[in-house]
Structure formats: structure tokens, C-alpha cells
Amino acid sequence: MTISLFPNLAKDNAIQIATEIIKLLKIMGAEFVDFETYSKTADFVLAIGGDGTILRCAKRMIGSDVKIIGVNTGFLGFMSTIEKVELHQLKKIFTGDYTVSKRMMLDIDVETNYEQLHFTALNDVLIKRKDFKIWKFSVYSDTQTVGDYRADGVLFSTPTGSTAHAFSAGGPILEPECECIEMTLMAPFSILNRPIIFTKDRTITLNHKDEGIYFSVDGDEPIELDTDSKMLITRSECYAQIVTFGQDCFHNTLNTKLMSSIK
Asked: Structurally, how many domains does the chain consist of?
């Protein structure tokens, strides 16, 4: 069995945890391979950090069927497979006592007068003004008008992303293996606008004419969305393969991590 490590070296304890993992799994017979060279041919990749580390790892694994195990070293770690005190559970990958959660991703294509940009998101794409002021935009589902909006911004999410920024913005919680596209408006100037769920095969188009509009894919560095440019959001052909241990992991995590503050 080949394993590659993807630690977030900005975390103080990432190297320590990576060392413990290597010691534990080498005893079980694992072979560790370099991430940059061999990660896409490994059996498993261990993302050591928080949810952001898993998001970055998933993007690096696009085009492969490598299974990702998230080891949480931070605070929330909602997407993580195990906590840093649960490294012993990694032995289950040798007995097959695990399941793989297949996570839908989004393709984001931006068309301007002079270039085309392409991105893939596991969580979401956020579009808003740089100066945080309200702006106008239109959204279409295939060729049908969904609405003309005035809001601080808009968020298009996968079911995995429904428990991230979209959750904070008042969007619904979706089971991560669902396949659909969620639209959540950010502080809309209306009492009637609510989140919308589109079927997985829709092509969602966003048009606008304002200046100073930026977008961010999975929390990455914002990129300017030029005036009169068009953004297309579709289901990607790529999926992230996230390993889970135990039964009903999503609802257990939901109760222990997201709901604990209101109980």
C-alpha cells in the first residue's frame, strides 16, 4: 500500500503528527511516496491540517481516483476523517474497514472579451464587490432567467460546501453525497429571496455590468470579474474521494461540530 502526505506546514503540530503517522503505518507495511511526484498514483493521500488543507489537496488530486484522508490539526475540521488524537484509526485502511464518500465538484468558467479562465471547486465560488457595496447581477439556469438581483454577493456551492460559507449565509445543510448546485445570496436587498437548489445537470450563468467585482474559488485569492464578463457554473466530471470511518459520519460530525454551540 502506498501513501503520500500533504501536511499544512503552517500548522505548528503538522510535522509532529506526520512523523507519528509515518511511524504507525510503516509498522503496518505502508510505503510512503513523495507527494509532488507520486501522489496521483498512491492508494491514499493524508491531508494533515484543517478543511483548507483538504480543499487544496483535493484540487491537486483532480484527474485521479486517489482516496483522501483528512487529519484535523486545527479547530473545526468539519471535512476531516479523524482528529489528531485518533491516529490509531488509520489502521482501518489495511482491513478495508472504511467507506469512500464521493464528492461532487463544480467547474467555473469565466468568459471575457480577451480570455477564458477555468477553475474547479470542491466547496464553492463566492462573487462580491471589493468595496463590499451592493451590486446588481443576473442569474440564469440554462436559458431560463432565475432572477435579477441586488445583493452584497452570491455564493454557488456544492453539497460539501453547504456546511461552509453557505451555512453561515443561511443556506440549507445538504448531505455531502448529494449532487446539486446551491445558490445563496449574501444580504439580498429583498425579503423574498431565499437559497435555490438546482439539479446537477444545469448550467448556471451569472452576468453583471458593475466594476470592482471579484470572485474567490474555495477561499483562494480573489480574482477580478471584468465588466460584461460571463461566469458559467456546472457540475464537474471530477469527484473528490473522501475516506470516512464508521457509520453515519456526516450526521455525527454535524451534531458534534456544528450544532454543539446551540445545544
From this structure: 2
pLDDT for 229-252, tens place per residue?
A: 999 999 999 999 999 997 667 777
Verify whether residue 107 is a known catalytic residue: no
Please indicate whether residue 121 or residue 247 has the higher confidence score (pLDDT). 121
- Once rounded to an integer, what is the mean pLDDT over residues 178-200? 93
Contacts of 221 (CB under 8 A, 6+ apart): none
Q: Are residues 223 and 178 in the same domain?
A: yes
The C-alpha cell at 211 is: 466594476
- Cα 39 to the center of its chain, rounded Å: 19
Question: pLDDT grade, residue 190 (50/70/90)?
Answer: confident
Burial class, 65, CB count within 10 angstroms (exposed 0-12 / middle 13-18 / buried 19+): exposed
- The whole-model pTM stands at 0.91
Residues 112 and 203 in one domain: yes
Range of the domain at 203: 105-237
Helix (H) or strand (E) holding 92: helix 92-95
Do 129 and 206 have their domain in common?
Answer: yes
Specify whether 78 is located in the same domain as 109.
no
CA distances from 192 to 134, 149, 184, 196, 201 (A): 17, 11, 13, 12, 26
Candidates 12, 34, 43, 51; catalytic one: 51
Query: Rg (Cα) of the chain, in Å, rounded?
Result: 20
Using alpha carbons, select from 127, 109, 111, 128 the residue that is nearest to residue 119.
109
Reported as a single tens digit per residue, the pLDDT across 59-70 is 999 999 999 999
